[in-house]
Each structure stands twice: as structure tokens, then as C-alpha cells.
Queue: 3 jobs
Job 1
Amino acid sequence: MLFQDVFSKWPMILNGVWLTIVLSFVAIGLGLVLATALTALRSLAGSWAGYIVDAYVELMRNTPFLVQLFMIFFGLPQIGIRLNGLEASLLAMTLNLAAYATEIIRAGVDSIHKSQIEAGLALAMTRWQVLKHVVLQPAFARVWPALSSQFVLMMLASSICSFVSVQELSGTAAIIEQDTFRSFETYIVVTVLYLVLALSFKLFLNWLGRKLFPQVSGLARLTEAHGEAA
Amino acid sequence: MQTFGWPEALFILRSAGWTLALTAIAFFIGGAIGGVFAIMRLSRIRWLRRFAAGYILVIQSIPVLMVLFMSYYGLSALGIELPPFLAASASLSIYVSAYLAEIWRGSIESVPRQQWEASASLAHTTAQTYRHVILPQAIRISLPPTVGFLVQLVKNTSIVQVVGFVDLMRAGMLVNNATYQAFQIFTLVGAIYFAICFPLSRLSRHLEKVMNASRSH
């Protein structure tokens, strides 16, 4: 086995890793914003808006990411919207993640008891304060583990973006393989890098969860333990 | 230039059969391996437990696409040439085994501890305990997430087109290369995937409700 051929391409590999990280984080950020907006739309607006959000979530969750990506990359130009591989990937990842996150965040919001909101209003909090401190923060804290694993899955799924010739980690692997003819070595190195990326993502997201929801997550753990004992 | 018409649509529809076949194969082979890993993960022997945990962690932390590339391009570089269908089945089975092992481990663990103790007090061996006491209950608990995972599997079969295996996705791409009517084609392809996945999603949700109702007694 000759790993030096592969390692000699380290600037390319590093670029690929970087693009995978950037793609994932931008998609996660945009996806979360969209998901929060969709969750709010579902609970605040009329029932028809709820149906549209539900239909969107079901549609995205029950079709492959690859079909969604191709629909955007190959299908949209037919109606005059031309996106390059990177833009199409980012859009597909954001739309896909938003659907899953909407479903997860909804579960969190549903778990907030109505009396909590009434208690918040009774303390003369504004509607916005209630939404932020009583509903969203505890809801996010509760579903953060589920969201985190969805983020990691999205990072892994970003490997599919190489099909529209985006030079992220797996796209880079394909190029190095063609250059060096060392397929086994290339894929071993790239697979190990994905492994490292996924584990770092998990650690980072756990840390972020503890930073973002310090009191609430402690409370959630407490109630969870209590619930299990009961 | 060819246009997208009935023959092309039928070709795509027929290829959905291969997607289903691949799903079934990966599910059964992956399920068999996953079952073994689930039980290993709960074994009293430490190194078995660690090995299973490591396997699950690694497979869940790498893209299925990499498993596929390694078993198709990687192995062929080492002189082992798998035909596309075999490489696709093998890599999807590996993917399935790690996820089902984790789902089933959770299901086995959620059978109340007293059941193990009761079975032990009846002088059952570990095998007998699993066979007669734990598994019948664990399988019930595992049904909703297992069906839910089946949806993920159906969707993930779409990546095997990259090694040239003509499944539903590949059929769509072939027709697209000939007709350039991507919008119509991928709408059809997406609709077929949806027609397979949506009923499974609903079934999973329904099973979850039924289970919760029976557990709240």
C-alpha cells in the first residue's frame, strides 16, 4: 500500500475537509432558521399554513436527498433558475435539514405544557418573551440531542453533493483517485477523515448544547431522570 | 432528440423493482448481522461489547457512500472485483447492520429488568431468556423505529447508482441524459420514492401510537 501518493495531495484534502465543514455549518444555520420559522408558522398561522408545512415536511422526509439535489441542479434550469453545484448543494441541504429539524423542534414545542405559557403571561412577560424564554429555549434544550444527531447525518449526507461536482471531501477523493490510481488508500484516508469529522461534530455539538442551554439542560436531565423513576 | 414519454416512464417504473429488491436484500442481510451485533453489544463479555460498540460507532460515523466506494473501487484496486449489484448489496447491508443493531439494542434494553430476573429464576439459560422472554417483547418495541429506519434505507439505496447499478435513481438519470427533461423525470422518480416511503412512514407512526396506547395501561 502506498499512502504517500495520497498524503502528497494534502492541500487538496484539507480543502475538501474545509468545504464539507463550511457546507454543513451554513446548511445547519440556514436550515435551523427556516425550521424555526416553519414551526412558528404551523402553530401561529391558520390551519391551511399548517397543512402546507406538514406537506413540505412529509415530501422532504420521504424522498431521497439525491433526488432533491438533482431536482434543484438539473430540474430548476428548465424553469429558468440556474444554480451552480455549490449553490444547488447548499439549497438542497438547507431545505432537507429544515424539514427534519421542523419535525424535531415541533416535538420539543409540543412538550411545553400550556400552563407554562400561562405562568409566563401571568408574570407579565410579553408574548415575545414567553416565546423566547418559556417556549423556544426549553424546547430547543430538550430536542438538542436529536437535532445534533440530525446535524451529523446531514454532514455525512453532504458527501452526496460530489455527484453535482462539488469539491467537498468525497468529491476530492474522486479526483485524487483519478490522479493517483490508489483507490483503496484514498478511500481509507477519506473515510478516516469523515470519522474524525463526525466525532468532532458530536463533541462540538454536545459542548454547544451545554453552553447554549446551561440551566435548562440541567433541568431537563433532572425531569427526565425523575420521569424514568416514576 | 428523444423525449420523455410512456416508454421512458415505464422503464423508470420497472427499475423501481430493483430499488425494492436491493432494499429487501440489505434489510435481511443487514438485519441478521445487526441482530448479532445488538446481542454482542449487550453481552457480559467486555471485549465483545466493546467490539460491537466500536463497529456501530464507526459505521454510523462515515457516509454510506464511502462504504460503497471502498467495496467497489477500493476492493477492485486490491484485486477483488465485485459486480455492482454485489458491492451495492454488501455496502448497504453493512450500513443497515450498524443502525439496526443500535435500534434493537435500545429495544432489548427497554424490556424491564425484572423480566430478566424472572427468567433467571426459572433457571433459563441466556439463550432461553432471549428466545422466550426478552425477544418477543423487544421485537414489539422495536417495530416502529425499525419500520422508520426502512424509510431511510429505501432513500439511501439511491446512491448506488454511482457504481452503475440501474436502480430507480439511475434509470431516472439515464432517461435524463437522453431527453434533458429533468424536471418531469425527477418529479416522477421522486413520486415513486414517495409512494414507497410515505406509507412506511405512516405505518411507523401508527405502530408507535398503538404501542404507546398498550404501554400506558
Note: The interface with chain B takes residues 58-59, 61-68, 70-71, 74-79, 152, 156-157, 159-160, 162-163, 170, 173, 177, 181-184, 187-188, 190-191, 194-195, 198-199 of chain A (CB under 8 Å).
Job 2
Amino acid sequence: MTSLQGCLLVSALLFAIGLAGAVTRRNAILALIGIELMLNAANLNFIAFWRYGPTPEALSGMMVVIFSIAIAAAEAAVGLALIIAVYRHYRTVNLDEIKNLKG
Amino acid sequence: MTWIAQNLWLIPVLPLVASGVIAVNKQRQRKLAATLAIGSMAMAFLLSLCAFSATLLHHGDNGVFREVAGFNWLQFGGQWLHLDWVLDPLTAVMLVMVSFVSLLIFIFSVGYMAHDENFMRFFCFLSLFAAAMLGVVIANNLLLFFICWELVGLTSYLLIGFWYHKPSAAAAAKKAFITTRIGDLGLLLGMVWLYSQTGTLNFYAKGDGCLESSALNTMVMHTTAIGMTVATAIALLIFLGAVGKSGQLPLHVWLPDAMEGPTPVSALIHAATMVAAGVFLVARVYPLMSASLNPVRLGLDLSNLGTPFPELILSSHSTALQVVTWIGALTAIFAATIAVAQTDIKRILAYSTVSQLGYMMLGLGVGGVAVGMFHLITHAFFKALLFLGSGSVIHGCHEEQDVRKMGGLRRFMPATFATYAIGMLALSGFPLFFSGFWSKDEILHSAHGWPVSHIPFFLGCAGALLTAFYMTRQVALVFFGKYRGGVRESAAHSQSHEKNKPSSHEDSHAEPHESPAVMTVPLVILAGFAILLGFVGTPAWPWFDGFLNGESAVFNFNKLTEAGTLSLMLASAVIVFTGLGLGWWLYGKRLRKTVGEPDVLQNAQPAIFRLLENKYFVDEIYDATAVRFNAWAAQFCDFLDRWIWGGMVLLVTWVTLGLSRLYRFTDDFVVNLGFDTGCETLREGGGEMSKWQNGRVQTYLRVIGVALVVLVLFLIWGRKS
């Protein structure tokens, strides 16, 4: 097993854990954390494919990942803000109870 | 063209507008209605006087003064229908008579109808009638004439049936309308035939009118069934209209029944004006009536070849005029005999009217326009006077119309008695001082000189005798002797005393009373004219005759004493005196004491009296023939309607109903069922699908995850294969 395969395996594991968390957790904040995990699994993939790819001297993989992390930060901020807004409205963050499509 | 001839239409339009305004106002505005009706009538009367003076001014210029004006009404095909009016002496005389008599009767009606709650409606109808009658008079066009003629018939119907809650009045109105309609059918046919022959309905149109020589000439040239010329046939058809309207035999039956209407209506419509419209019609189309073939063409040599069209001569013994004469003479004697045996004050006058209308027809037939028209004018005044007088009597006797229950009214109503006596003497033809004498004398004189037959003359004389007789009978029964009407009322009176009711009101009602001034003043005015009018048409000064014929009259006293004239005048005076004396001997000397006592004539000749009392059973004969046939035909039509046509309609209905049931079944169980099922399936499908859209974010995510796995597996599996 090469080190690339090991990286991908770790990344897939991470993604699966994130997905399971996002799908199964009832708490919105935990579901958001699951989504962050899946995002980081993707970042790990980027780094792995860059490091073991044909041109590791170019900094393209690093750049994409930093960019992606910045977006994830923004996404986390927006997501948390949404959760606060939802909480204020419904007085709960249980995703099962937030199922009305309108107002 | 004079101003008045141009604006002659104003005369009928004024009362028409008044009638319209009254019709749209509220029912309580009596003053407004009376003012409008009388005001418009007064205006119309003034305009009529203008028209009359215009004809007087132009009198004797050259021939008969005649001016026509009008407008195009509507177009059909390439031809225009005109509505024209004419101003000539005939029109002018009739205008003045109609508007003046109407004016007086309107004024009288204010008193007579004072207690009627439908006062407004009455004046609305009266004004409409006056408008239509004036329209008849001014028409220079058979179409306009016919329109107004029918309007006159309509208002007559409305006014006879004015008290429609009385079944007899409603029946009389229907009878009048239907009977005159029979005559009007003839008039309509005549009108259509005239149009098809001459292409015009205008009476006078500077040579193109249907009463002028070129049109008459074409009509005389053609012959139709049984050797009649077309002119004669058309004239007879038109005369049929006049027979219906003027109550001549055999269509006289409606006129006596028409007395069910209010008395002013009887006076205005069924004595003075409307019934005279038939006579006026004959006078108006007189050239057509008198047109006949020149006997020269039949091989006889006569010297009067002065006309430019040798085929045509205007003769006073054309076939049409002979018919007019005979009908008139028979009607005159027929109705006079019936009047002898009647007991209703208005019915006596009604039969007298029929009889006098017969005289007018006789006069037209034997003597020409002026003779008939003169009697029309004088009769209008004295008959209006008599009817209004009878209205005053009826009013005074508390709506009692039976002469047997009157009597002695001379003391109670002196003004009515005096004027009534004048009217009665004028109608009887009392010599020298009363208009009826001069006009009737002129008719008898012409009848005497009629070359065809002398029988109409003798019939006329007999009629004159009877006229004097029945009028004396009536006056004796109504005004002389003791009042016989109070019996019933005094019985009721004593009863009311027992019940302690206030009885002063009933006291005043027990005896007859004189009518108010609004009713007696028109009587006095009419009485004045009933005397004076005779002097415009005496043999010594035949002004009326000359006026209508466009000649100037000369005063020639010697004409009075000419052999034929004087002897005839003496003869007619003897006849009148015989009639008056006979009447007074039978009824005046031995006055009736009680209500139930049989009539003097009834004691002498019960069979004849019964025949006369029942009006020769004409109504019964009509009931047994025409009315029964009509009823049978109506029943037959009813049967056809109910079973044959109704059955067909019903069949169609059933078929339609069956078809629609079928459609409904198909709709319900085929179309709707299929469609409904489709819809239901779609809806259920939609419901299933909508369960996916449940708002649970994590479910969506789960689906995305599963889909992703499936996609990846698919890609992997696809690559491998």
C-alpha cells in the first residue's frame, strides 16, 4: 500500500464519518460539524493528489486547499448564523422539527 | 303657402304632447292634468281658428283653396312614404268644430269626473283622442289618416272601458274595438289596393294625388269582378271602414253599447267627433266615391263632355254613392225605430246618433260633400249638447240612467232643462230657428231630387217623424211629471233614521240637484251654437255650401220661396210637428206615474214594442251567427293548438328529453368516469410524490449520499464492462 493510498483511505474514512454525522445527528450544530469534516476530507485529497502527483514542485494543490479552507470558514460563519436565526425562530435546533418549507 | 298650412301639424301635436306629459305625471296632480289638457286644446282651437280664417281669406280666389305640406317619413324600395297634411275648407271646418267641441267637453269633464280617482288617466286618454281626431282631420294622406283613425279607435276602446271594473263596460269596449276592426279591414284593403293602382296615398299632390283626375282616370278605366270599376271597388272598401266607424248598418251594434263609458266620452267620441270620422272619410274621398265611367262610352249620349278625360265623370249617382245612400237611409230609419222603445237615456241618444249618422251618409250620397258635412257640423253641436245634458241629468240623479226612474227634473235643474230642450228641438228639426231643421231639410231636399230612386227620401221623412217623436218621449219622461226616482232612496233614508245615522248628507242626495257652473256653461255655449249654426246653410244664403265648394254665396231671399224649396220645407215642418204632437199626445198628456208601469206603445202593440225594445234582435242574431261561428272557430283552433300542434310540440319535447337523458348518461358514466379516474390517479400520484418534499434536510442529504454511492458504483461498474 503506497502512502497515496493510505492518504486516500484516511480521507475516505474522514468523509464517511462526516457524512454519517451530518446525516444522523439531530442537532444542527453537530450536523454542521459533520459537513466540516467532509470538507476537510476533500482538502486532504487535494493535498494527497498534489504531493504524490506528477508536479509536486508547483504550489497549486496548496493554493486550492488554502482557498477551500477560507471558503469553509466563511461557510461555517454563515451556517452558524443561520442556526442562530433558526433557533431564535423555532426555539430549537433539532433538525427533525425544522421541516416546514414555508415560514 | 300660408304660415298656418305649413304648421298645421301643430294642432294635433299640442294635445298629443299634453297627453304624454299627463301620462308620465303622478296620479294626484289633477289640476296639472286639467290645465294641460284644456290649455293645449285651447291652443289647438286658436290655431284652428287661424287655419279657418286663412281659408276664409283665400276663399274664392280660384276654385277651392287647398294647400298641402308634409314630410317624407320612411323609404321602402325606391319609394318614399309621405306624411302630408292639407288645409282646405273641409279640413278647416272640421278642425274648428272638433277643437271647439273638444274644448267645451274637456271643461265639462272637469266637473263630471271631479270625484273619479282616475281623473289623470281620463284626461290623458281624452287628449290623446283629440290629437288623433285632429290628425284624422288634417291628413292629406291615407296612411296618416289610417294611423290616426286607428289611434282614434284605440282611445275609443280605452275610454269605453274606462270603468273597466264593470264587466259590461269591458265587454262594450271589446265589442266596439272588434266591430270597428271589421270595417277597418276594408279600409286597409282599400288603401293597399289604391296604392297598388295609383302608386300614391296622397289625396292631393298638384295633379299626382289619388283623388285627382289622372289617378281617378286610371282607376275608372280598369274593371274588376261583376263589372265594377276598380274605383268603385276601392271606394266601397273604404266605405266599409266608414260603416264600421260611423255605426252604419250592419256594423252599428257597437255604438249603443259604447254608452258604458263616461258621459263626456259619449258626447265627444260617440256623438260629436269620432263617429263623424266615417262621414268625414267619405267626404274626404268624395271624388273617388263619385268617380264613374262616362256613359258616352257605353253608347249613351250626354252633353257634359267638359272634362279633359272623357272616360271619367264625377257623378252623384255612381255605384259607390248609391250604396252610401241606401246604407245611410236604411240606417236612419232603422235606428230611429229602435230609439222609440229604449229606456236608458243615453241609449236613446245613441240610437239617435246612429240614425243621424245615417242621415249624413244619405246627405253625402244624394247631395254631395256640403250637404252631409253641414248636418255633421250642426249635429256635432246639438248632439254634444244633448249628451252633456244627459250627463248633467245623470250626475244630478246620482248615476241613474233609466228614464222611467226620472221625471219632473224641469223644476230641479232649470238650466239643464232649457239647454236640453234646445238640443232636442234642434235634433227634431224644429222649423226655422234651429240648426237641425236647416241641415236636415237640405238632406231631404237633395234626396227628393235624387234621380235614382225616391225611396231614400221617404225613409228620411219617416226617420224625421220618428226623431221628433222619440225625442219628445224622452223629454216628457225625463223633465215633466213627478220625480219617480226618490222612492228607493227615501226607503233607505228612513232606515238610516232608525239606525240614528247622520242623515243630512243623504237628505241632499235624495233629490236631484242642478250641476255646477263648470258643467252648465258649456251647455249654454253649445245651445247657442245649436241655434245659430243653422243660419250659415239656409237655402236663402247657402254660405256653407259655397265655402266648401269654393264658390261665393249670395244672399237671395227669393230662393226660400221657390216652389220646390218652400213646399218641401212646409212638408218637413208638418212632419216635425206631427212627430212632436204625437209624442206629446202619447207621453206628455198622460204622464207616467210609477216606475214599473208599461209603456204606452207597449200597451198598444206589445209585439212590435218588444221587437224594438230588443233592437230587432240584431245582437242576438250576431250572437247566434258571427259570434257563435267565431267561438266555434276559436274552440277548433284551441283543439288544434292543444292536441295537434301541442302534441307535436310535446313529441319534440319528449324526443329532446330522451336525447338529453342519453347525453347525460354518457356524460356521467363514460366521459366523466374516465376523466375522473384519470384525475384521481394523477392526484394520488402527486400526493405520493409530494411525500418526498418533506422539508427534512437530513433526508435530502441521505438521498444525495445514496445517489452518490449509486453513481460511483455505476461508474465503476460501467468502466469495467
Note: The mean pLDDT of chain A is 88.
Job 3
Amino acid sequence: MRNTFSEALYRAASSNPDVYIVVADISPAGSMAKFSQQYPARFINVGVAEQSMIGICAGLALKGCQPFAYTIATFSLYRPFEMVRDDLCYQNLPVTVVGMGAGVIYSTLGGTHHTQEDIAIAGALPNMQIIAPCDPAECTEATNYCAKQKKGPIYLRIGKAGEPNYTDKAVDPWVFGKLRYIKRGSDVCILSYGIIMQKAMQLAERFEAAGKSVSVISCHTMKPLDVDGIAEALARHRHVVVIEEHAPQGGLAPRTKQIAWDTRATCRLDTFTLQDAFIHNYGSHDDLLSAHGIDLPAMSARVGLA
Amino acid sequence: MNKMIRRNTFDVQAAKERCLRYRRRILDISQQVGALHIGSAYSCTEIVDCMYHALMRRNLDGSSPDTFLMSKGHGCMIQYVILEEAGVLSRRDLDDYCKPNGRLGCHPDYGNPGIEASTGSLGHGLSMAVGMALAERGRETDGIIYVVLSDGEVQEGSTWEAVMMASSLGCSNIVAAVDNNDFQSLGRTSVTHPSFYPLAEKFAAFGWETAEADGHDSAAIFGAISARSGKRPFMLCAKTIKGKGVSYMENVPIWHYRSPSKQEYQQAVIELEQAVQ
């Protein structure tokens, strides 16, 4: 996903001389190297100085530029949090803060490199928009959107490398602020966002094997949330499942429950989130998700498929 | 045509008169509200006046290709009264300062006329100045970014990130000044942070061109900044007095924020006017 982000950004920079990227000492994967070679004045590496990364982006935007701040998610959002809040959100500047490798992707690097609370934290900030593409194809769409929009700051939560595409045959196009049906069914609906969509697709297959008609939705825009779209999904399906790689607070699961209450939804609603805990497990990404209770056997059992 | 006018001469007497007017206006406004950062505004009055009136270039329509950024946002009263005199802010804006229907608060807000960035939390301004400087360079325009920092603010790690980046990126179009009034809430910075001084050599070590001057001597400020080479980012370490111009306010921390009483106000008026005569 980071490679498709880099390629989309490189293309945006090729057609718009106001596109800048300010990185904090992160290896130039994929087209990022091309960007830095071809547009060196617009590729700024601050080193391990994330507060200045955000402040410099704010200054560029105050002069009409379209900057991206780019590093590992914990360091792009948490470390310079007050700069994100004051410089970007308070001034409402069109800066994209890219959180790369969000969630617990960096499984062996420990809790310092995990981003379990970013949607809650970014979502609490006035003016902040949040996009979390589920696959490289959505990442390209999201990056193109970020490179053009002038509405305000965006937190773009992306994965790392090697994710497959799930949306090649999606029912809906990618539209900012709208739920996107990847497949549309009538019995069960699985809502998810980000690269944990892989688990959503696997669970959908299990439901289908059990004879259910399944919808899978990419909730790529986490703020503003498509409340009407979620309400409709809750109304149209007998069973709704939310899967997210995020803490139980402030993410899609509690928002969906809130909307279900507000709209008096009558469907069954199961939610799967990371735990409210720092888990010391140094295996693969999947191992860490399992430790948090997100794996196919555990989810299947809880939704009645075991 | 927006023909550029560069002001190379500096009239010391005119500067003195302006600074008196600004201090008087701030004093008057202090009588409308319970608190304003009067001591902080008085310590950087001559610095900000010099930047606006002597250093920043003006187009005939009053706009400037240069940018002023008040990184020590709590000192913004001096910026407000300068912008009021220039007609950028209205008298009503100032009369409504910190009132429910007003648009000016204790810290400058981006979006208000003449305010180029929101500040208030310390340690943000210099990084934004670096971004602005890069944008000017990217567009091949020659705008200079003028920044005023407080000495307390220079304790922020984020300020040093920006100091490092400004010189590393060759931002020679940044002209900054530290309003070194030696005071913050818990006392004199030279006592609480002695290893911080002398200040200028810290910036010089990061590749900045530096100068020192009496921050209440307008001619000295103008002379020091005008003499810069323009090859590196520039930092003026200006020695100032918090509450400068009013004896009972000078170097007394309570005047960081307090408004004077009626009696104190009258005494301040007399002292300010006597000082200029």
C-alpha cells in the first residue's frame, strides 16, 4: 500500500508544483525515491524531528501549497500531536498526515510502534478528516483525493506492503465520505476499513459457505462517517459484523452501536476490535491480531459459524 | 501597478513616537478587560515596530511580499495595535478585544486580517516559518519571513527542531528575533536555565547568522538586522525588559497578564509620556 501511495503522490506532484512531501527519516520505498530525485526541492526530510515535520507542512499550506507529512503512524500523529491539533486542525489547513503501518502491523517492534488508538485520537479533533483505505487500489483513490482537496487536514491511515486488492470488482466506486459496497448481499453485512479487510473477506466466505448472502462494506472514510449509509446497512441486514484493527473506544464499532441505538436497529450486531491493552506478543501481524482476539476461528465461533 | 517600496532609512524619533502611541493604546485597552499580556507586548514593542515599519517591504496598496509571524502569540497586543494603525484591523476590532462578539483574543488567530498564523502554544512558530520560507523559495518569490520568539519559547524542543531545519535547508529568508526579557512564570530564565546563556552562540552553532542588540533601541535593532548577510537564517538576540516603559511593571512577573487599576493606569500614562520627552 505504501508503494501505491508513493506512486500516486509522485503522479500528483508531477502535475501540481504545489504538492510537497515532508518525511521524517523513513526509507524511500517505491516511487518515493523517484519523487526525491525528480523533485528534490519538494521532498523534505526533517530527520527524526516530527514536530517540525508537521509545522513545516503547516507553513507550506499557509502559503497555498498542498503538503503531505509522511512517516510511521505513531510518529506522524502521536509524537507531534499538538502540532497536528493547533497547526493543522485549528488553522484548518489542507495537509495530509499519512500514518503508515497503522494498527499492529509492526508486530515485532512492540507497543512503541503500534497505532491502536489513532482513529479515536484523530477523530476527536475538529476539522480533521480520516481516510483508511482497505487495499492498494483504494489507497490510490484516497491519495488522489488528498492531493486535490482544500477542505482541511486529513489523517490518511495506510498499511505497509504487499496487501492484495479487494475492490477490483467492487459494486460501488470510491467516493469520499461514502460507504463502499465491495459486494452486496441480503443476510449478513460486514463493515470494516483498512487492511484488516482481509479478515472481513475471509469471514464473508465462511458465511457464504454456510448459505448466507453477504455484503462487505469498506468504510474507508472514518470521518466524516457515512451515518446514513451505516443506518441503512443496519436496517437492510439481519446480522451486522464490524471488524476493525483499533481500540474498542472511538472507532467504527462504538459508532455503529451508537447509530444502531439511534435508529432503533433490530439486527444482530457483533463487533471485533483490538483489546484495550498493550499486548506483548512478538510474532507475525496475524499472531498479534489473534492475541487481540481477531482471527477466523475466534470470529467464526462468536458469529455462530463454528 | 504595485510598485515595491523598500524603506532603507529609519527615523528614530518617528519610531519612538509610534512606540509611545502603541504602548498608550495597549494601556487604554487594558482598561476594558481584566487581563491582557501587557508586559509581554511592551518587551517586544520596538522589535515588532521595527519589523513592520522599517524592514517589511510595502506595496503601494499596503500589502507586503513579506510575512510577519508572532511566534510568541501572547505578545500579540503590539501586533494588533500596529495593524489597527495601518487600517488592517478596525478600531472596533480592538474595542471588542476579548469580548463575546469580538474576533480578537489573547492569541492571534489565522483568518483575522493581518494574522498569518495561529499561535499561542509556544514552540510552533519557527517550524511554520520554515514551511513558509520553503514555499517562497519553491515559487521563486523573494518574500522574507519575520518571526518574533520569546526566550521561554526557546526552551521548547520543537523550536530547536526548527532551528536545525532552517539552517539545514538553507532558509536564508527567515529573519527572527528572540525577545529576551529574561522572565517567565517561575522567575528569571537566566537563573532557572543558566546553561542556556549566552543565547546567540547556540543559534550560531546551528549555522544561523546571529547578532545581539538592545531590544528597546530601535536604531540598534534596525542596524543589526539590516547588516545581515542574507546567506543564512538570521537570529537577533534582543535584550529586553518585560513591561518596558512603566516602572512598576518592569521585571515584575505579575504584569505578564494583569491589567492595571485606574490609579496604576494614570501613573503609567505619565511615565510613558515623560520617557519620550
Note: DSSP finds twelve helices and twelve strands in chain A.
